[in-house]
Amino acid sequence: MITKQKGTYDIYGETAKKRAYINEILASLCEKYNYGYIETPVFEASELFHRGVGEATDMVQKETYDFKDRGNREITLRPEGTAGVVRWFVENKLYGNMSEPVKVFYNMKMYRYERPQSGRNREFTQWGFECFGSDDVLADAEVISLAYNAYRLLGLDNIVIKLNSLGDTASRNAYREALIAYFKPHIHELCEDCQNRLEKNPLRILDCKVDQESEILKKAPKTVDYLNEESKTRFTKLQELLDLMDINYVIDTNLVRGLDYYNHTVFEVVLDNSYALGGGGRYNGLVETLGGPSVPGVGFAMGYDRTLLAMEEHNIDIPIQNTIDLYLLYVSECEKETAAFIAQDVRLNGFICETDLLSKSLKAQFKSVERLNAKYLIVLNEEEIKKDRITIKDTVTKEEKSMPITDLIDYLDMNSR
Ligand code: HAM
Known about the structure:
Number of domains: 2
Bound molecules: histidyl-adenosine monophosphate
Strand order of the largest sheet: 1-5-6-11-10-9-7-8
Strand content: 15-25%
Radius of gyration: 28 Å
Low-confidence stretches: none
């Protein structure tokens, strides 16, 4: 037997229905913020992620799915959405007319070679969005509010936004130097990964999973102490806006995020202090790094699968369609043809309709009516059909009504919606 790959899963049945419901909510919310939908390719040139996400990140070092295609090109399955969206923005020269910000959202599969566990997969979905062209802190607030409102609309009212500022490039560099100087004398007390991170990516030491409880990490210099005046003012303004918007956030000075492209605002969404349900921030240098002019950007991505898991764990009711409108029962060939004709009409008019595809006995068809939770049934009958009539039965009230076939849609319209 061929089985699915580790860290991947099939989406079907109730889960598929739940996801369709969530997709609708999220897409409709994005519309309110005037974001347009985008899909980028699953695979891109490896260089995009090496340059975009950062050579020294765990993601590029350990987690990407890289391969050479038959034309010997270095290809990577996208591990995240931002780099691909920036590539699209630059490739289509959308920076040419920035009279309005460019705002897009996506709902895409991502691929990371991680150790699979609950909420951590190798193939997973992110719902995310990116906003290009505004360096105003109001854009950061708008992105945070879109993320925040999404979780709330899904019923996850208790989420908290963890917020931090890495400052501009100068502040970030000053902080980086301070961290290297601080960690150097203690580095052998930290894990091997952290030892490798010291020169390449010292900020990552701060959110190391292994050394999380170490006093050395707890006493490390804080980002906020290295923000220059401009970055500090910006961070304060952002908090004021979030307060005005009634968004529940806490400052977490250890929050640095795993990807290299961030500056100023970084944030994560958490619930019950468990792993992040989503994360994002500002990335003002990324468009330039990927070959465009200097255009600011800010965005966010929700871990879709983790969010659904959290909704299930919190017993949030996800309305899913578990009934059908009509079941057509038949025995003879003539009745079967009428079933085909009526089913076509009923479905085209927006009702869920089933009929027997397995040559079942009438008794077994009645069982299907129950199993599928049909609201109405019609037992097609040759004698009636000759008179262009049918009898519809309400499966709950048991009420029956005889009518011309041509009245059926009107009847369902009046009684079923
Ligand atoms: P990220 O923090 O790497 O950010 O991923 C965002 C979210 O995706 C995480 O908070 C988590 O919920 C989910 N996630 C990550 N890895 C996995 C996994 N292996 N299995 C299941 N869920 C996972 C980004 O990807 C940035 N591109 C976000 C962003 C958009 N920043 C600006 N714009």
